[in-house]
Amino acid sequence: MEIFKQLKELGYKHYIDLTIEELDALPIDDIEKRIEYSLVVDWFREEKLIDILILPQDQSACDPLPLYFFAIISYKDEICVELYNSSDKFHYSEFNEARKQAILKCIELFRKK
Predict the structure, then answer these.
(1) Helix (H, G, I), strand (E, B) or coil at 113
(2) pLDDT at res. 1
(3) Is residue 79 a contact partner of residue 51, using CB atoms and an 8 Å limit?
(4) What structural domains and CATH numbers belong to the chain?
């Protein structure tokens, strides 16, 4: 999936010294991709007034591995105007996968506006 190509169309300028194609091709757990995803989350908060939260799911004591879900909060004049929460539909076994899916959802939500 071409996340960084879609982000460029929304006005995001990447910081890592790779092309957007190279960034998109990196494995999800690559340090450069993780850094860039963190910068994308900051960009959504600062430029688009959208917060991305990655949260662990409440779990039983029997389950040793956490599951993650995401919440997206959109603000206008410091008031929450939209909330999207993936916990009802999706849980991810990896933090990085939850963050990637949250970024994709933000791209989708922003394009609808």
Answers:
(1) coil
(2) 62
(3) no
(4) 3-112 (3.30.160)
Q: Kindly state the tokens that stand for 46.
A: 């600062």
Q: What sign does the dihedral 8-12-18-23 (CA atoms) show?
A: negative
Q: Tell me the sheet residues that pair with 75.
A: 80
DSSP character string of 2-29: -HHHHHHHTT----SSS-HHHHHHS-TT
Strand order in the sheet with 79-85: 50-56, 68-76, 79-85
Q: Name the one residue in this structure whose structure tokens are 């989350």.
A: 41
**The tokens of 98 are what?**
């939850």
- Residue 34 tokens read as 């993780």
Pick from 9-13, 28-32, 62-66, 68-72: least confident:
62-66
Sequence-distant (6+) residues with CB within 8 A of 98 are 54, 68, 69, 70, 86, 92
Q: Residue for token digits 């609808």?
A: 112
Distance CA 48, CA 91 (A): 25
Ranges of H-type helices in the chain: 3-9, 20-25, 31-48, 95-112
